[in-house]
Specification:
Layout: H1 9-34, H2 36-43, H3 49-62, H4 67-80, H5 83-103, H6 107-110, H7 112-143, H8 149-176, H9 181-199, H10 206-222, H11 226-233, H12 238-270, H13 274-298, H14 304-328, H15 332-345, H16 353-358, H17 362-395, H18 400-430
């Protein structure tokens, strides 16, 4: 049975347009991340291995550090102007930053200016991607009802994963057959423009439009301004916000481990070239995509929070196993298999995003969802990028446990909280 057979033509078209845009957005965003082993050598000065690791961490974190500010900006636009406007603006920002990077001279020609311009472009891309994926997830959540809602929202995550796979595919071409990397950025910029234009066909979500209409009615009856009505009637539970934050903390930690930390091991311990690392990660990303598809299809029959409980169980097992494996492993093939297993089973919000999103009031939803998502990414990527360097130097592979165990415990706590909320909401509906 087609899990989307109950959807209207308008709903299917909206999902398609949002998927295309998210795919293009994440293709552009991930292109530099997965080509960092090559592009960092072009735009940053050559240094000793320790300093190079710090520069790599800096370049990686620059994508995420301004995301919370982007979340506040796009959150305001999304909650006050509309969901549609936000997803159009974000794709245009991504396109402009890609054009700049496609034409940027390397460090050898313009010196440290190249590093600064790349960093600024990465910040812009990080900000634009912030309003993009959460905006799309909110749009679909408000457009479709459960149970089709869960796999429909998961399709947005799948589109982002497809973008990452495509970016790795292009990166593989660049490094294996000398395909010009600048052309890849030009392609990314061009398709981002196409995505922006295509999204103008979207309509605002009925739930948001109805809420706006009711708000205007209350405004007329009470003579109060919208801001005062919202602040009075729409309060967000702080514990719910915290638990959403804890759930969102986990994915960036596992992502960094698989694609960045393990890439450094392949480079330093097994002598992999940038081309070999990119090709290795391309195959790993396919397993990430397979995992997303697995959770998406499962969510139509199995409640998303139950899927998250499975994930946290596997995560604890993996976390306890990883240090011992790294200490004794002497095979690049075995490391590749571990990467595939971790990325397939990695915990995260997917496919429970709609449950988390719906827990926030509609006129606070965009701001809270995007800010929590952005803050979790920015905080965890910064902590992980720099702390892993020093923790593993001090404690070896066991240093990973200092970050992973508390994060997984927080993830479990968040799942338990949203499970209680679901039971409470179900009881209220029945009553």
């Amino acid at each position: 049975m087609n899990i989307f057979s109950a959807l209207s033509r308008q709903q299917r078209e909206a999902i398609g347009l949002l998927q295309i845009g998210t795919f293009l957005e994440y293709f552009d965003l991930m292109l530099y991340i997965h080509m960092a082993v090559l592009l960092n050598e072009l735009f940053f000065p050559k240094t000793d291995p320790h300093t190079a690791a710090l520069l790599t961490a800096f370049a990686f974190c620059s994508t995420y550090v301004l995301r919370p500010f982007g979340a506040l900006i796009f959150g305001y636009i999304g909650d006050n102007i509309g969901r549609k406007t936000t997803v159009i603006i974000t794709t245009m920002m991504m396109s402009i930053s890609c054009v700049i990077m496609a034409n940027l001279p390397p460090y050898a020609e313009i010196g440290i200016s190249a590093a600064w311009v790349v960093t600024i472009c990465r910040m812009v891309q990080g900000m634009s991607s912030m309003g993009e994926i959460i905006g799309c997830q909110i749009y679909v959540t408000e457009l479709i009802k459960p149970p089709s809602q869960y796999p429909a929202v998961a399709l947005i995550g799948i589109a982002s994963a497809l973008g990452a796979v495509a970016s790795l595919g292009i990166a593989t071409l660049v490094t294996s057959v000398e395909f010009n990397w600048r052309i890849a950025f030009w392609i990314g910029a061009g398709i981002a423009v196409v995505g922006s234009v295509a999204r103008t066909r979207l309509r605002e979500t009925p739930e948001f439009v109805d809420a706006k209409r009711r708000m205007r009615g209350l405004e007329r009856k009470t003579s109060k301004k919208t801001e005062r009505i919202i602040s009075t009637n729409e309060k967000t539970n702080k514990k719910t916000a915290l638990c959403s934050f804890l759930i969102n903390l986990v994915w960036p930690l596992f992502f960094f481990l698989v694609y960045v930390y393990f890439s450094n091991i392949l480079k330093n311990d097994f002598g992999f070239t940038p081309a070999q690392i990119i090709q290795n990660n391309f195959y790993v990303s396919i397993f990430q995509l397979l995992g997303f598809f697995t959770w998406m299809f499962s969510s139509y029959k199995v409640h998303p929070l139950r899927i998250l409980r499975w994930k946290v169980f596997f995560s604890f097992v993996l976390v306890l196993f990883i240090p011992t494996f790294l200490i004794h492993n002497q095979s690049a093939v075995h490391l590749f298999l571990l990467q595939c297993i971790i990325i397939f089973l990695s915990p995260g919000a997917l496919p429970a995003e709609p449950i988390i999103i719906k827990s926030f009031p509609i006129f606070r939803r965009f701001t809270y969802a995007t800010f929590i998502y952005a803050l979790s990414r920015a905080l965890m990527y910064v902590i992980t990028s720099f702390s892993i360097i020093y923790l593993t130097e001090a404690f070896g592979a066991n240093g990973l446990l200092i970050i992973f165990i508390p994060t997984c415990i927080g993830y479990l706590y968040g799942i338990i909280h949203f499970g209680k909320l679901e039971k409470l909401n179900t009881t209220s509906v029945v009553s």
